[in-house]
Structures are given as structure tokens and as C-alpha cells.
């Protein structure tokens, strides 16, 4: 692992000041001390610089290629094993995930609320072409385009209600998981219902596909039971993150942004020495050449081990934990307790070669692929987990580093979210999770 020497050690805050700050925040946050590493961790500014200074456009192009006809979900398997190309994940050939209990409900002689027709829509889209999933005024979102294209299939009563409220006549869709701006999806699941009996699956598919050719594509549509809900019926969600290992720049260490809380210095008096000389044998002397003792040179890593990231993530498998510290932009009422608990079925990382699909590049790119499968994910949880795992791996943290962070309620203990360009929602499952469907085994 490459290392780079940090700048001179500056003055630390006085002990009384530190105690006062800790006492003031004792009732609000449970802090994490980060005292388990010999190598100091990157600061937020440094991890942000390390994550974003990479050729993300190549990852975005790769996802666009998958959406536009490059094989979609099944093409991801080719990154690891050609034997899986003929696996049972081919979406077009199945209803997927043993959802017979949701689909095989008699559609004849329906009355009342059961008269309406509910459609399950599975689609893929390129995250870099949209401002996220959720519909927002003035933004080009996936939900906005889908609902607009379904407007002509809305029943007369609903259309009249919308007109009376001076609202556009658009469909209303529910989704399995809202994705952020820049995040792609290969098998996103949503649903749409109407009381019109003349609506066919092929009509819906043609209308949605015409809304954004080359960026948004319907994989298949099927009529399902009214009890089907893409969000609440889902039993697991599969996310994939591709992190470029090439094209990075050296982290610029700044004295004004040093993470003093992550250092381990054995001599408190030595911290207050404003000028000192460090000899090659790690013995420190002051300006008068008086011996002060052995110290540990503060150094930061300029790279990380993919195997170490995999080791950190594997510790999360098979456990139901509160991931509130890894979430972002969530309401305070949902920052603690059961709303933040997630069960991760699968968490792995591996190094791979991303195929070159752009004529401007002639060589495959080395990347780290991270696969996470859980019953649910909090907002930006995957991106924070990836960035924090990279930071902990670079610092040589213990295997339980991510688990130890669960004890804190201060989100400053985790890294800022990784770039959205590398994230993709691969699949949503409505049957029991099967390890064989994972990409990284």
C-alpha cells in the first residue's frame, strides 16, 4: 500500500476544551473515537476528492449501454463468469421471483374496487439522463415521464377529478425504490392501475418507450392482482456499485483539514511541541537536540485494498442492524429505532475489468464492484456504505470497523456518500432470496 507523509503536527485543542465540547454534546450524540487504526483516516474533504477525481463518465456510458440493449441485467454476470449468462435471471422469459401468490388471482367477475386493472411494470433507465426517480416540478425525472405517458389510460372519473383541481391528466405509479439523480436501474419495478377495461399491456409499453427512447426502456408489463404493491410486497432489493480504480489523483493533505481525532500519539507533551525534528529511527528531538522519545509518524494511505473492502462488507451479512448512521437526508423521527433497521442478505466486493464499449478507449478499465442485497435500504445508504468501507480499508481498520460504527448516532463518523454515477438498482425480488442469483459469489 502506497503511503504519503502528512504535514507537520499542529497544535491540538486543550484538554479542558475537549472535555467541554464532549460534555456539551453528550446528550445529543454518541461519538465514535476511531482509535483502532495505525494509519489516520481521510478527512471528508480528502475522501470527497479521492472519490470524485475518477473517470465516472466511463461508468455512466457502461450503464447506458446496458439500458439501450447491451444485455441489461444478464450482462453484469459477464464481468465475473460467462457460465452465468444462461442463468434464470433472464427477465423476459419469466415473471420472476415466484410471485404466483400475487399474480395468479382470478381476474374474472371482479366487483367494486377489484374491478380495476393493476399492471406491474418492469423498466430500466440510465441515471445520468434523469434528475432521479421522484417527480419534482421543473425537473426531468423518471416518474414524471412515466406518469405523463400513462395519462391517456386514466379512467374518466379520475381524469375529471384532476381537471377540476387544475392538474394535468397523468397516471399515478408506485415504485419499489426511489433512486437519486445519477443512479441507474436495470429492473426497477412500479405499478399502475385504471378502471378502464380496454387497456392492454402492449399499449402501456409502447407509450412509455416513446417517452425517452434510448434512455428509458420497458422490459415487460403484466396484469397482476390488486393486492400487489411494488414497495411493500418486495422482499429484497439488489444494488450494484462500480468504482473505477484508475484515473485517481493524489490526495492533497491540508493542515487546516487534518482529522486530529483519528491520530494516536503516545506522548501528550509532545503534541504541544511546535517545532521538532523527526529522525529516521522515529526518535524525536526538540530544537536543542534533547531526546523526547519514540513516536509514531502520522501517515495517510493513498490507496486501498479491494480484498479489505470485501472483508469489511462481509461482516454485515446475515444481521439485522440499525443503519441510521449510514443514512442521509432522513427526518429526525426516522433516525432511530425500527425504521432504520435493515437485514443484509449479501454484501461483497471484488476487482473486475469493465469492458470497453466506447471507441474513444481501447483498453478495459480496472474497477471494484460492490454488490449489496437487503430487505430494504435507507436513503443514500449504499453510497455511504461504499465510501465508508473504502475509507476504513485505506486506514487498515479492523474487520469489524463497519459494525462498530453502528454504536454511534453522529453521522459525521461515516464518510460522505460516494458519487451516484457508479450506483445501479439491479433487481427487486418478491420471492425468497436465493444466493445463486447474486453476481459476486
TrEMBL record:
Alphabetical GO biological process terms: tRNA pseudouridine synthesis
Enzyme class: isomerase
Domain Pseudouridine synthase I TruA alpha/beta: 363-430
SUPFAM superfamilies: Pseudouridine synthase (SSF55120)
Superkingdom in the source lineage: Eukaryota
Keyword check for Isomerase: yes
Keywords assigned: Isomerase, tRNA processing
Molecular functions per Gene Ontology: RNA binding; tRNA pseudouridine(38-40) synthase activity
Catalysed reactions, semicolon-separated: uridine(38/39/40) in tRNA = pseudouridine(38/39/40) in tRNA
Enzyme Commission number(s): 5.4.99.12
InterPro entries, alphabetized: PsdUridine_synth_cat_dom_sf, PsdUridine_synth_TruA, PsdUridine_synth_TruA_a/b_dom, PsdUridine_synth_TruA_C, TruA/RsuA/RluB/E/F_N
Family: Belongs to the tRNA pseudouridine synthase TruA family.
The name this protein goes by in its record: tRNA pseudouridine synthase
Organism: Platanthera zijinensis
The organism's taxonomic lineage, starting at the top: Eukaryota, Viridiplantae, Streptophyta, Embryophyta, Tracheophyta
Amino acid at each position: 500500500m502506497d503511503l504519503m507523509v502528512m504535514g507537520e503536527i499542529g497544535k491540538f485543542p486543550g484538554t479542558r476544551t475537549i472535555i467541554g465540547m464532549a460534555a456539551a454534546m453528550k446528550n445529543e450524540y454518541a461519538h465514535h473515537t476511531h482509535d483502532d487504526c495505525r494509519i489516520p483516516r481521510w478527512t471528508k474533504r480528502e475522501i470527497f476528492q479521492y472519490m470524485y477525481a475518477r473517470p465516472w463518465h466511463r461508468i455512466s456510458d457502461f450503464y447506458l449501454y446496458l439500458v439501450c440493449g447491451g444485455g441489461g441485467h444478464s450482462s453484469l454476470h459477464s464481468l465475473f463468469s460467462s457460465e452465468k449468462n444462461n442463468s434464470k435471471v433472464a427477465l423476459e422469459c419469466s415473471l420472476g421471483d415466484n410471485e404466483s401468490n400475487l399474480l395468479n388471482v382470478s381476474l374474472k367477475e371482479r366487483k367494486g374496487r377489484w374491478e380495476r386493472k393493476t399492471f406491474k411494470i418492469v423498466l430500466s433507465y440510465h441515471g445520468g439522463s434523469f434528475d432521479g426517480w421522484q417527480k419534482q416540478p421543473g425537473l426531468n425525472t423518471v416518474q414524471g415521464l412515466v406518469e405523463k405517458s400513462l395519462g391517456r389510460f386514466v379512467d374518466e372519473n379520475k381524469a375529471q377529478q384532476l381537471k377540476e383541481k387544475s392538474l394535468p391528466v397523468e397516471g399515478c405509479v408506485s415504485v419499489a425504490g426511489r433512486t437519486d439523480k445519477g443512479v441507474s436501474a436495470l429492473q426497477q419495478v412500479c405499478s399502475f392501475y385504471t378502471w378502464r377495461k380496454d387497456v392492454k399491456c402492449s399499449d402501456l409499453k409502447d407509450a412509455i418507450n416513446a417517452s425517452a427512447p434510448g434512455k428509458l426502456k420497458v422490459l415487460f408489463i403484466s396484469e397482476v392482482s390488486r393486492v400487489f404493491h411494488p414497495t411493500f410486497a418486495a422482499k429484497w432489493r439488489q444494488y450494484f456499485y462500480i468504482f473505477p480504480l484508475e484515473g485517481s489523483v493524489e490526495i492533497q493533505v491540508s493542515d487546516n483539514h487534518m482529522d486530529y481525532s483519528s491520530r494516536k500519539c503516545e506522548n501528550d507533551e509532545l503534541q504541544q511541541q511546535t517545532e521538532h525534528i523527526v529522525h529516521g529511527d522515529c526518535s524525536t528531538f526538540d530544537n536543542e537536540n534533547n531526546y523526547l522519545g519514540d513516536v509514531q509518524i502520522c501517515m495517510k494511505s493513498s490507496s486501498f485494498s479491494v480484498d479489505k473492502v470485501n472483508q469489511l462488507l462481509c461482516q454485515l451479512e446475515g444481521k439485522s442492524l440499525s443503519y441510521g448512521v449510514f443514512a442521509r437526508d432522513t427526518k429526525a423521527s426516522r433516525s432511530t429505532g425500527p425504521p432504520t433497521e435493515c437485514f443484509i442478505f449479501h454484501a461483497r466486493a471484488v476487482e473486475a475489468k469493465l469492458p470497453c464499449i466506447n471507441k474513444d478507449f481501447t483498453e478495459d478499465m480496472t474497477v471494484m464492484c460492490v454488490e449489496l442485497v437487503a430487505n430494504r435500504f435507507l436513503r443514500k445508504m449504499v453510497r455511504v456504505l461504499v465510501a465508508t468501507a473504502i475509507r476504513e480499508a485505506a486506514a487498515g481498520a479492523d474487520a469489524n470497523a463497519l459494525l462498530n460504527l453502528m454504536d454511534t448516532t453522529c453521522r459525521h463518523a461515516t464518510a460522505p456518500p460516494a458519487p451516484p454515477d457508479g450506483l445501479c438498482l439491479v433487481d427487486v425480488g418478491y420471492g425468497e432470496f436465493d444466493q445463486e442469483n447474486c453476481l459476486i459469489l
